[in-house]
Amino acid sequence: MIVFFDIDGTIISDDDKHVVPESAVNAIRTARKNGHLMYINTGRTIMNVEPDLRNIGFDGYVCGCGTYIECDGKVLLNRTVPKPLCREIARLVYECDMTPVYERSDSFFIDKRIREIGGFPALKALFKTQGKDISRDISEEDFGFDKMVAWYDEKSDLEKFKRGIEKEFDYIDRGYGFCELAVKGFSKGTGIEQVCRHHNIPISETIAIGDSLNDLPMLEAAAHSVAMGNSTEGLKEISSFVTKDLYDDGIEYALSHFDLI
Question: Which domains are present in the chain?
Fold first, then answer.
């Protein structure tokens, strides 16, 4: 079996504590020792997968909503958005009065001209404690991104933003005034397909575990879809199995349910 794990809300708590349950670490390591392949599958870019997560032990990573794929230490895909399009999107975001974080496999960029709304101040503070540089600005010559997230509020022109990005990107509403953009043709689901081709393993041997609506492509692509107990209700309804909450040993419970540990 190949198991694909989302990060936030699945392996690590999606709150101020950012806890990785010891039971999850032990379960993943045990399943791997038992001959199963363990993969991260996240909207985060690869540089945003912290060492403590990597140290759990994974066979590879699908990052940036399928735009980056690494298997057994080898990079199979690293898809970036063309720079002229990056500039165009940055201009649109500014016009629509939203707060973006532009994510690349090797860097983050922000727009220092813009209001800091929603969860952006908290994210910036978290990144500072983690030693991540979030000071780079879109005015820099090498500005570019693989994917992006943005916060919006009642002053933002969200409809203009959606119209402006619809030809090149898929819009993912994360709720609470927060959205994510993924390049069309790439997703957590396409990442699963490519990893399976690399290992020559059929889709029927895949399990995907997630907690939010941006995990939907991943859960739809896998043969067995697992929603965390702390998932949004919409995700539970379409999943073939609902495990326990993250804090209630949900990962261990799911891997045990499928006889991987």
Answer: 2-79+186-257 (3.40.50.1000), 83-183 (3.30.1240.10)
